[in-house]
Amino acid sequence: MERGRPKFDTRFRFLVVNAGISRFGLSSFNLIIIWVILFETKNALLAGLGDGIISLPLFFSFIIGALIDNTKNKRLIAILVSILRAVFLVLVLYGFYIQSLSIILISIYASGFVLGLTSDVINSVRATWTKEMLTQDQYKSGSALSSMATYIAEAAGYLLSGVILLLGFYRSFEILIAVFAVALLPLLFISTDFKPEERSALQSIKEGISFIRKQKEIVQLMIIVLVLNITFGMIGIIFISLVQLKFHLPSIYASIAFSMFIFGLIIGSGFGSKVKGKLGRISMVIFFITGVSLASIAFINSIFIIFIPAIIIGVLIGIANVLYNSSMLHLVNQEFMARISGAFSTFSVAATFSSGMLGGALIQLTSVSESFLIVGMFVIASVGLWPIFREIYSIVV
């Protein structure tokens, strides 16, 4: 690399900016709709459904990834869906304008579904672009940079969403529309050279399935990410319920709690590029400490002390995300990136749809404190997966 040249491709930097702004909007939207639904209905299960509806389209991510891998003009697709997500949020404003609870709920769920669907498309585009824009020796550092940027934006989204809510529910969604409109701008400055081979959508899907079946490491990594997403899909609704139903505090405290977790993710993402060793050994330590930290929240009666395990959990998951993302970049060829990224979403990230409702149901059946204990024990038990997954266990990162 020549002196004076940027470490990363300029296009990759624009991609990171786009991902950051989008993540800010999504995290703000996620917390705002949970708070609004819980405030209007006092029903944790309905709030959990609102949390999970964003992830519902991810069940179709593998098919979307196959279509994106087979699409030549990915930039145009990304721009069009970015416009769609900004415009569709207007439906939520209509729900508040006519002041009907049923319309408010329907419009929130509908807009959440569209945001999830458009995010799915853009994430598939980003996956294939990332493979093109990074060199092989930049996979870990590029993953770290991308993770840090999106987690910083996510932290800002969760933190500021509490402030945004103070402006009123209607104004909150007006601000979200503006954020998603701004997220479109970096995409206008990105162009790519990679052109996929001509193939039918069905053939693209079959090739993706065949690739996954031959790669045990990919299947095992999907299962690990599935466990993490089930866990942290439940944590979102449990944390918000902790603030609103147990401590009876205003929304800003929910924002702060999420921000502490994201602050830990930022630290962990920055540190993740420096972690070396066998993926299995590192992950077993991460899972165990994470489980213990989650379970400990059940016995804490101060919102401020809860911030400590929230940060610890964030640091550990931030490290894990960098290691898992860089491992995937090494294992997957560029022509399969959108399909494999979509497969991860379909079989792993889509678990957050059910886990949001599961978290709400868990609270209804037990209590907020007991829910943290149960989730923590689940994570500790999942440590036992790693010795079984020998192929991924022995990957050196």
3D structure, described in words:
The protein is mainly alpha-helical and 397 residues long. Helix content is 79%, strand content 0%. The chain is built from 18 helices and no strands. The radius of gyration is 20 Å and the shape is globular. The chain starts with 9 loop residues before the first helix and ends with a helix. Mean pLDDT is 82; it is low at 1-6.
Could you give a short description of this structure?
The protein is 79% helix and 0% strand.
Shape: globular
* SSE class: mainly alpha
Can you summarize the main beta sheet? none
Q: Per DSSP, what share of the residues sits in E-state strands of 2 or more residues?
A: under 5%
* Distance N to C terminus: 23 Å
Strand segment tally: 0
Structural Rg: 20 Å
What is the topology?
Elements: H1 10-41, H2 44-53, H3 61-69, H4 74-88, H5 90-97, H6 101-133, H7 139-166, H8 169-183, H9 201-214, H10 216-246, H11 251-272, H12 279-296, H13 303-331, H14 337-349, H15 351-365, H16 368-381, H17 385-388, H18 390-393
Helix pairs in contact: 1-2, 1-6, 1-7, 1-8, 1-10, 2-6, 2-10, 2-15, 3-6, 3-9, 3-14, 4-6, 4-8, 5-6, 5-8, 6-14, 7-8, 7-11, 7-13, 10-11, 10-13, 10-14, 10-15, 10-16, 11-13, 12-13, 12-16, 15-16
